[in-house]
Amino acid sequence: MKFSINRAAFIKTLNIVQRAISSKTTIPSLTGLKIDVTESHIMLTGSNADISIQTTISGANPDYELTISSTGSVVLPARFFNDIVKKLPDTELIIEVGDNFQTEIKSGNSEFTINGLDANGYPHLPEIDSDNTIDLPAEIFREVIGQTVIAVSKQESRPILTGVHFTLEQQKLAAVATDSHRLSQRKVTLPADGDQAYNLVIPGDSLKELAYMLDGKKEQIQMNLSENQAMFNFGTTRFYSRLLEGVYPDTSRLIPESATTNIQFSAMDLLAAVERASLLSHESRNNVIKLTINPNDKVVTITGNSPDVGKVEEDLQPQEISGEELEISFNPDYLKEALRVFGKINVEVAFTSSLRPFTITPVDNDEDFIQLITPVRTF
Question: pTM, whole model, 2 decimals?
Answer without folding.
Answer: 0.92
